[in-house]
Each structure stands twice: as structure tokens, then as C-alpha cells.
Task: structure prediction
Amino acid sequence: MKRLFLIIGAPGSGKTTDAQRIAQKYPERVVHYSTGELLRAQVERGTKLGETIASYVDRGALVPLEIVMDTIEEAIKESDKEIVLIDGFPRSVQQMEALDRMLQANPQIALEKVVEIVVSPKTAKERVLGRGRGADDNEEVFHNRMQVYLEPLPQIEAFYQERGHLAKVDGERSIEEIVQDIEKLIFHQQQ
Ligand code: AMP
Result:
């Protein structure tokens, strides 16, 4: 049985860093995938698929559903750890519904929590423009990514709230405090 935890948050919320920390701390039990990083890795491979992905990522637009779902499904299935953390997914209502179908078809994967790292738009913007990761970390693309993040959020929150999966974590604090909150969500049943 695999226990799946999804970590969502605005660009600059720190979701990837937080999840990475946890995976590094518990390497025997936890594996982490960042959806954005998985997609950027494809781009770096220089394949035709990578070119298609880049045309979306560079604009801050969502990569098409089928590509994202294949990426996520492959990551979950290849992981050999009990606890799987995925950040940056789902990012649309379509992805959320497709995940639901995937989970129904794969009863060995149990979705446990969808952790939303909450930061103000101001904090998000300062962090993103400060890090200059690549073509998508400029002001115009940031606004687009923020829009793309916020638009489906109420529906995603409502869906997971109703199923008892949603947990909000205040992302304006230190990484240590945020990580501790996420760890509590992951390990409370078993520690
Ligand atoms: P991130 O590293 O999470 O900021 O994501 C960087 C970019 O990767 C996004 O702006 C999107 O273009 C793409 N991306 C990441 N996650 C997803 C997703 N779940 N669905 C579609 N595109 C995504």
C-alpha cells in the first residue's frame, strides 16, 4: 500500500523545498516528486515531448492533462517507498478528476492528505522574483502562474474538504515550522 500526500501552493509558497526536506529526513520511508521538476527534467532531455512541455512552462501555462497524468502515474508507480509526496499537483479541476479516476483504478494507492501551503500573493511574488530560477520567474509570467493557480483553487479546496483530505498550513513561517506541521500530518497515525 502506498500512502499519497499532495502538496499544493502558489508559486513561491515553498512547496517543493518543504517536501524535499521531509524526503531527505526520512529517506527509507518517503519519496518526493515535484511536478514542475519532473516536467523540467523532460525539457532538459531535449525530446519532442520536452519541446512541447517547454512551450507551456515558459509561459507559465499548464502542461496538457495527458502529459501531466502520465508523468504523475509513472512517478507513483516507480516509487518504492511507502510514503509518496507530490508537490504541484493537482493544479486544475480536470487533473483532480483524472486523479480520482486513477485512484479508483489503483486501490493500492491511498490518497491521505492534500496539504495546501498558504502564502499571501505579496510573499509569493517576492520569493519568486528573488530566486530567478529560469524563463518562467519574471514578473509577467509570475502573474500568469498566480492566476492559473488561483482560478481552480476554490473548487479543488471544496472537493478535498468534503472528503476530509484538505489540510491548510501557514506558509509564512520558517521552513522548520512548516515542515514540522507537514510531518505531523504524515506521521500522526503511525508515530
Ligand atoms: P512549479 O515548479 O511548480 O512552479 O511549476 C513550474 C511550471 O511547470 C508551471 O508553471 C507549469 O507550466 C508546469 N506545471 C507544474 N505542475 C503542473 C501541473 N500539475 N499541471 C500542469 N502544468 C504543471
Notes: The two ends are 18 Å apart (CA to CA). The pocket of adenosine monophosphate is lined by residues 11, 35-36, 39, 56-57, 60-63, 68, 88-89, 91, 95, 136, 145 (CB under 6 Å). The longest helix spans residues 65-78. Residues 2-33+81-187 form a domain with the Rossmann fold fold (CATH 3.40.50.300).
